[in-house]
Amino acid sequence: YWLAKMLYAGEDPRFILRRLIILAGEDIGLGDPMGLVVASSAAQAFDYIGLPEGIYPIVEATLYLATAPKSNSAGSYFKAFQLIEDEGKIDVPQHLQDANRDGHALGHGKGYQYPHEDPEHFLPQQYLPSGVLGTYFYQPSEQGHEQEVKQRLERWREAQRRALGIESTQDIPDLPQDTIQEIKHKHRPSTTT
To answer: What is the pLDDT of residue 192?
Structure first.
């Protein structure tokens, strides 16, 4: 209904498609990762064929996204951004640093374990800086695809806690919407006059 109303009122179809892509990333996310593919493909198809037939990819994307499992867990990015802004510079663990050329002589990459040699393609080595080890920014929902992600992530986190001797963990609480809006504003391109 609302799609038809917007198009009837003369809304630019490309504006609608941009909003569908945002919806797919922000409100559907890993609940159904194909949502972003469908929305992006609809925008590309519309640009290729235009109106009137271009309405079909817009309708398809709208219906797909309206009926997809929803998850806003991609917003966990803002928790990490806020922590980085609050903490300042924190070094990358040495075993994760680039060991090419001069880095090898500095000890970069020493002790790194290649995860793809493991059957699950995961090894419980340290991936975060020591100051935030055991901090969880991302909490998968029970929606759609994320149910599977949640189970896998729980196994990996438990293996990492055991291997690294992590005694306590911390879930970063969701940020207030005004803080998220401030962070989004920092991502806007600067304008020069």
So the answer is: 55
Tokens 């207030």 map to which residue? 176
Distance (Å, whole) CA 98 – CA 108: 6
CATH class as words, domain 2-67: mainly alpha
Greater model confidence, 24 or 111: 24
The Cα–Cα gap between 89 and 11 comes to: 45
Please write the tens of the pLDDT for every residue from 21-35: 999 999 999 999 999
